[in-house]
Structure formats: structure tokens, C-alpha cells
Design a protein that fits this description.
Keywords: Glycosyltransferase, Transferase. Pfam families: Glyco_transf_4, Glycos_transf_1. Helix 13 links the parallel strand 13 and strand 14. The chain starts with a helix and ends with a helix. A six-stranded parallel beta sheet has the order 11-8-7-12-13-14, sandwiched between helices. The chain has a four-stranded parallel beta sheet with strand order 3-4-5-6. A two-stranded parallel sheet has the order 1-2. It has about 375 residues and is α/β, with parallel strands linked by helices. It folds into two domains: about 180 residues, Rossmann fold (3-Layer(aba) Sandwich); about 170 residues, Glycogen Phosphorylase B (Rossmann fold, 3-Layer(aba) Sandwich), CATH 3.40.50.2000. It is globular. Helix 1 crosses helix 16 and helix 9 packs across helix 14. It has 16 helices and 14 strands.
Length: about 375
């Protein structure tokens, strides 16, 4: 499950749970098969009804990007992304339209999204400037970055996400850990060889003495556009298996990984929120994170911050030094665990749902 899918699902459940009296939640979906529709309906039992568009996701995306008005429900429209009918419409049919912008990668790192997807996102963001009543972002960092690129005036609202209640330990953690071949001690990260994620530099860090030969497990696919995590590790001189891509993992496996990791490292050069870092904080896993503004905002002092750019040393050296501080240095792991859990409690989906309803009430 990718981040946007998880966000949309959790927010929808929160909106259903916090709906004010006389307010209903209706699902609006692009065309899909009956089996998929039934599965989605089962995930949101509190939704009053489901409206299915006649067009596929791709067709709707093209139509809305080109300003073609395609019916997509009436009343208050809240989109968990920029995928929304941002077109000139009769406001009696759609009184409010609120969309969500999760990051500014479409401008800063278009290769991370793919250039066509990035171009679509930029186009829709400018349509939001014309037609959206408000734009939700997950952090003040994104709000500031977006303001430099799109004139949204006073319509931006910061409403963050939260940890997923479904990320819980399996019933048989020891058996599952054995099946996953988890080392006794390891460092955990998430990402790919997309340069934005900083995973390449983290692999270089794993080859340095300060990493103490700890295995590095990475949630994510081995290959990204011809570049492989395993090949990068080999070129860094690391023995086979020292760095292991795990691919996609289940919620229970993620919980197991976070609960057993010596540290979770978030080396990203750019983020909109940092959901996996928040999950690590919730488990009391010591967090090492870059000084990307969204991650600094998220951690709020509950992690070990590493500067991305410094002429005095390489980023890999600084990441390794931060891991060293957690493993054998002067970092107080128990204090970080307490700070992390406390920080994670500041975020809840119920609060996010209530704030969305409040936003629509203000509009």
C-alpha cells in the first residue's frame, strides 16, 4: 500500500467517524470492476453511498487537467489529492471543492514522480489556484514551499496525517522474525535508489566504520529505473546480504521491523510529511533524519538530525556518525524513545478528520 492510498483510506475512515450530525460521507470513485468496488465498500462501512464515474482514473485525470467538466458528485467535495474536478462549474452543484497537495516534488524533484506525472500535478495545482476553495497540506514546510510556486493566497490549511492503527505486531512475532530472517541487530530505512530518498548515501554510510557493520534493511523495491540497491551495496564494498531490500511489507511486518530496529534512518533530501518516520517515533524506535524541513517539523527534536549539505564532510559520513552516536555514542536511546512516542501522540486521524470538517464549516 503506497502512502497516498493509506492516507486516503485513513482520512476517509476518520471523516466517517467524526461526521457532524446530518452530514454524510459519500465515496466518489473512478470506474473500476465490481469486485474492486465491493472490496472498497467493505473498507468503509460508514459511507452512505458510493458514486462511480463513467470514466477510468486516467480518463478523468486527463479530462480534469484540460478543464473538461465531468460530473463527480454534488455538495462538499474533499479530495485527498489533486485528483479532483478543478474546473469551472455551477456552484449550486458543487458548493465547495478542497484538494490536497502532499509535497512539492513536482517542482523540486520531477524525476521522482516521472516527468509526465509531475507535469500533471503542476497543471492541477495551478487549476487549484483558480477553482479550489481551499488546499490542504500535511506540514508547514509544504505550505511554505508551495507558496513559492503557486499563488493560493490564504486558502492553504495545514492538516497532517497520523500513524495507522493497523500497524500492529503479528500474533507470533518470533516465528515471523525467523521467517523474515531478521538479524538480531539492524538499521531500518525505507526508499529506493531514487536520488531524492538519500538511500544511495545511506548505503555508502553502511560501508563506513561508524556503522559498526550493522545490516541495513530497506523497505522498498531493489530496482529504480535501472539502479539497484544490491548493486550499489556491492560497489560500495559491502558483503552480500549486508544491505537487503525488503520490497513491500505488510502492516504487521512493518510493525515487527520497527519494534526491533536499532534505529530508523530517514535520509531523504525532500519530503512532504514523513509518515514512515512518524511510525518509527510511535514505536519508540530511535530516529535519524535529515534536515529536510518537513522531517525537522515532524520530529520536533525527537530524533537525531543530520545536515544534508556541509562542505566539511560527506553526507554518508554524517549519517554514519549519527548511527554511531545511537549505537555506542552519547545519544540517550531511552530518552529518544520516550520523546518519540510522545511526539507521535500529537498526531491522530480523528483530529485530522475533525479539522477537515471544521475547514468545510468555515468555508
Amino acid at each position: 500500500m503506497n502512502g497516498l492510498t493509506r492516507y486516503a483510506g485513513e482520512l476517509t475512515r476518520a471523516l466517517i467517524a467524526t461526521a457532524p450530525p446530518a452530514c454524510d460521507v459519500e465515496l466518489i470513485l473512478s470506474r473500476r470492476g465490481r469486485g474492486e468496488l465491493a472490496e472498497l465498500a467493505a473498507q468503509f462501512p460508514g459511507a452512505t453511498r458510493t458514486t462511480v464515474a463513467k470514466l477510468s482514473h486516467a480518463a478523468l485525470a486527463t479530462a480534469w487537467a484540460n478543464g473538461v467538466s465531468v460530473a463527480a458528485g454534488t455538495g462538499i467535495l474533499h479530495a485527498p489529492s489533486l485528483f479532483a474536478p478543478l474546473v469551472h462549474t455551477d456552484r449550486s452543484a458543487a458548493r465547495q471543492i478542497v484538494v490536497t497537495v502532499h509535497d512539492t516534488l513536482a517542482w523540486t524533484h520531477p524525476a521522482s514522480l516521472g516527468h509526465s506525472s509531475a507535469a500533471w500535478a503542476r497543471r492541477m495545482a495551478h487549476r487549484a489556484a483558480k477553482h479550489a476553495d481551499a488546499v490542504v497540506v500535511p506540514s508547514h514546510a509544504v505550505a511554505a514551499e508551495l507558496a513559492e510556486r503557486v499563488d493560493l493566497g490564504e486558502r492553504v490549511r495545514v492538516i497532517p496525517g497520523a500513524t495507522s492503527p493497523g500497524i500492529v505486531l503479528p500474533d507470533d512475532p518470533e516465528v515471523r522474525a525467523s521467517w523474515l530472517r531478521l538479524p538480531e541487530r539492524f538499521v531500518l530505512a525505507a526508499g529506493s535508489m531514487d536520488p531524492r530518498t538519500g538511500v544511495g548515501e545511506l548505503i555508502q554510510a553502511a560501508a563506513l566504520p561508524d556503522f559498526h557493520e550493522l545490516p541495513l534493511l530497506i523497505v522498498g523495491a531493489d530496482e529504480w529505473r535501472g539502479h539497484r540497491i544490491t548493486e550499489t551495496a556491492m560497489l560500495a564494498g559491502l558483503p552480500e546480504g549486508r544491505v537487503r531490500p525488503l520490497g513491500a511489507v505488510s502492516d504487521s511486518d512493518l510493525a515487527l521491523l520497527l519494534s526491533r530496529a536499532e534505529a530508523f534512518v530517514a535520509p531523504s533530501y525532500a519530503e512532504g510529511f514523513g509518515l514512515m518516520a512518524l511510525e518509527a517515533l510511535a514505536f519508540g524506535t530511535p530516529l535519524v533524519h535529515s534536515d529536510a524541513p518537513a522531517l525537522v517539523e515532524l520530529a520536533s527534536g525527537a530524533g537525531c538530525q543530520v545536515v544534508r549539505h556541509d562542505a566539511g564532510s560527506s553526507y554518508a559520513e554524517r549519517l554514519a556518525a549519527a548511527v554511531d552516536a545511537l549505537i555506542v555514542g552519547d545519544a540517550d536511546r531511552s530518552s529518544l524513545a520516550v520523546l518519540g512516542r510522545d511526539r507521535a501522540k500529537a498526531f491522530s486521524w480523528r483530529d485530522s478528520g475533525s479539522r477537515v470538517w471544521q475547514l468545510h464549516a468555515e468555508l
